[in-house]
Specification:
- The protein starts with 14 loop residues before the first strand and ends with a helix.
- It is built from 5 helices and 2 strands, in the order E-E-H-H-H-H-H.
- It has 2 domains: about 100 residues, no CATH class; about 60 residues.
- By secondary structure, the protein is mainly alpha-helical.
């Protein structure tokens, strides 16, 4: 029965019609969570669910996306947004290669590459062109924005460097100045003491 659930196994690719169920009405044990009791409030046309999501998607169709009734009913049950924000149906008159009730698998089969045949003949290219040497040049011009970027980078780098180095330079300068001042004072004292002797 395509509307009922069965236990998942590794051999069967079982899918069922997707629907909206009022399961929150009563609590159930974990092993009964997938049982469709109570019956669905709304079956979503074309949509499938299954043990393996990939199989369910491939067996699904996109017909609900082309039906305003389907989209509105689904949104009514699952959306908390106002109805003005609900999705609008797709325009089936613009379809060229598939119908709304085509399975996703058939859509993919018709529009995906089965095999990509691509051959690049570099030998033939070089024989035809016969280049004596290959050279690549790149012209690089500094723009106004590049110059601004370099100046800002230099400013930022110098600011960081000077903020960390300046205290050491001031400390070193004060030490050197202090030693020079002590020598000058001691020299002056010696000169004054020599003058006092005469």
């Amino acid at each position: 029965n395509p509307d009922s659930f069965a236990f998942c196994n590794q051999y069967d690719k079982i899918t069922y019609k997707a629907g909206i169920y009022k399961w929150a009405n009563k609590s159930r044990p974990v092993y009964q969570m997938m049982d469709p009791l109570p019956p669905p409030v709304f079956l979503i046309p074309g949509m499938k669910v299954g043990c393996v999501p990939y199989d369910a998607i491939l067996n699904s169709t996109l017909e609900c996306f082309f039906s305003s009734l389907c989209l509105n009913t689904t949104a009514q049950w699952i959306s908390t947004l106002p109805s003005s924000s609900w999705p609008k149906p797709l325009d089936s008159s613009k379809l060229i290669n598939f119908l709304p009730n085509s399975s996703v698998a058939s859509i993919m089969d018709g529009h995906m590459f089965e095999e990509l045949k691509y051959k690049m003949n570099f030998t033939g290219y070089y024989n035809a062109c016969a280049p004596s040497e290959c050279m690549r040049t790149y012209t690089y011009r500094n723009s106004f924005f590049y110059a601004i970027k370099v100046l800002l980078s230099l400013y930022g780098g110098l600011t960081v460097a000077l903020r960390s180095i300046a205290p050491m330079i001031v400390w070193l300068g004060s030490k050197v100045y202090g030693k020079c001042l002590k020598k000058a004072i001691s020299l002056l004292q010696k000169i004054q003491s020599v003058e006092c002797m005469f």
